[in-house]
Known about the structure:
By secondary structure, this protein is α/β, with parallel strands linked by helices. It is 42% helix and 18% strand.
Amino acid sequence: MTILVTGAAGFIGFHVAGRLLARGQAVIGIDNLNAYYPVSLKRDRITDLQARYGDAFRFVAVDFADDAALAAALAGIDITGIVHLGAQAGVRYSIENPRAYAQSNLVGHLNLLEVARERPGVHLVYASSSSVYGANDSLPFRVEDRVDHPVSLYAATKKADELMSEAYAHLYRIPMTGLRFFTVYGPWGRPDMAAWLFTDAILAGRPIRVFNGGDMRRDFTYIDDIVSGVLASLDHPPADDGGEKAGGSRSPHAIYNIGNNRSEELGRLIDLIEAACGRPAIRDFQPMQAGDVKETYADISAIQRDLGFAPTTPIEIGIPRFVDWFRAYHSV
């Protein structure tokens, strides 16, 4: 049994691949190792997986937006499940480089749908995002909410991924699960995310930029909880029974929020990072950035009901773990 994990050198993909390998499944991981953030971190993640799991983990550097290269990389491999986590990430970067998002998140997602179509019965779990909710002011965000008004191109591409997936589930009866991730953090995290940016700046004595004057809230979700939700989704493909699934589909396609079900003040996050670093932050208050939203908060009742998902890691536990890893990784 070989599971295909896209974005295997990325933050969530690395952790998902590791958990799959730890439970005895073979993994083929693919990633194009782009330079959106330092490639050295991505390579270190791959090296870690190879050191721990040897031949059970096979890595191929390939751009899944290149359909011919993707087909060549997967030729002859008996894939029993797909976890599609690769994407061009980042709300703010989508304003600077929109074409990267169209190529990776639209063309690339279509290519993975085709990979699944060529393998009847194989379940495709894919990454969506809480960004699809846009400036929705009805909290907490529910999978039943309308998500027709994205405030960034990144969010628009993720909504488009959900729509393409629904079409393929309807046409080809492919079992699919889309996961709307809410602000994931933890060891081996992404350098463009708040926990990393703040920790790095505080330890170096640099100011941190605090947007919207600090009046921001996020549903911060620890990576171990996210991985548990991803694997629970993979293990329970939606049935092709005509019944309504989470998200409203009557095809074998479910959509879930996957978050911590707690909306935390940004200032609370900074306080915890300060305590873990043992020094105060220099807070540089800034206006709201284009494409950003003031608050996120996940209603996780659907994934709790269907898959038994129950996050266990509040930021009071998760943030010190992240800071400990950050200091060890950077020897600071």
